[in-house]
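note to self: dont lose this again. the chain is below, predicted strucutre after it. 451 aa total, dont forget to put it in the shared folder this time
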Amino acid sequence: MENIIVCKFGGSSLSSSEGVQAIIDILAQPQRNYIAVSAIGRRYNSDIKVTDLLIELHRCILNADTVGINRLWKDISARYLSVFGAFVHKNRIKRLLKRTYIIVLEMRDYAFTVSRGEFLSAKLLAIATDYPFVDAACIINVRNQKLCVEASINNIQKAIRKLPKFITGGFYGREIDIDVISSAHFNRESKEYHKKKALMRINAHSKHNKICRKVGLLSRGGSDITGAILAVGANAKLYENFTDVNGVMTADPKKVGSFKPIRRISYDDIFRMGFFGASVFHPDSVHILQTSNIPIAIRNTYNNWDFGTIVCGYAKKPPFVTCTDCAVVYVKGNVQLPSYDSILRIVSDCNGFCAVFSDAEQARSYVNSLAEQKSEAIALSGLEKVEGVSVVCNLSYLEVSTDATRKGGLMPAIESFPTEMLHLCRFSDTMFLIAPKSQENAILNAIVSVL
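---
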């Protein structure tokens, strides 16, 4: 097949019956063959995502909290009946919910329970649109919350040869035990290998095994990853990521009152936006699509007439600002640099370095390791330097990408604030600053006004 378009619909697209109707209208257009969906998202800012309700449900199951289990499942069921009730017969929805509930209670498995949001969304949307449904556990391979790329692509291509179109759930797949399936770890003639194979054959016939035996989760936001690998496996000409905004903006619309759309952006820049706090697109999915040179269209489900933002190999660097919570550790002296997944930035000078963490726990872990090394460490919290090894996460990390002609206007806007900001640094096309959380919105609006 040629000219295939792969689509992913996020939780905001599935938060209401209006969103489902918009999806149905979009899928009525040609070439949108393969679809990945998220669990139902928030209806309003203070709402709780279905995924978070399922996480709480699992906790209640482990604690034998019958009242909590009944309350949470009632809320989850009401959400799906409200969103899909106009498109799928309510008795059919109730039967699916009941079957899912029974298995969730019997399995008591975290990954299986949490993944049921995407499973139910995909199953019900497939019924509503008359698309075939494919369980993500049949095509996506996961190990330790990481995507097994080659195996997943092979599975997807096998499914595509059988089905001209289908809908699947994002965020989860089949958990792969590399120790069992890899001959590099076990000699096929060894007793250990045959014991594991025998155990697999026994488990293969256990109750409910086909749908839940080895469910594994990707990291949060992993539906983007599912959609991206689906596009690669389908050799798509375009990957469309549908959300509730008209593409990528110069700043987070939820935090600033003035923002502008970015119509074209490079893979590298959209990756940086995701890594430094923007919730537009999962950074890992960018690399998957960039490797296969598949362009991305970030579009609004509710405004399908808007072409949104195109992400491709080359684009002029647009001005934008990202913002995320952070904890900062300043280290004096010559000590080992930290190596953590949550490191946003490290800035060093002759006196030491400043490490910016997006995860307060990892910041505390690093400070504790410094204490063991008997190094002089200072945790920056709020507006003052606190001696010792404590870290307080009440800071904001802002990164501004712009061209040199606008920097002249940016500096006066930033310097108009009290000189209590903890750090400011400029590079060729980027500047970043760490400021008190209380000043975040004011600084964001000042920056956006000159972008």
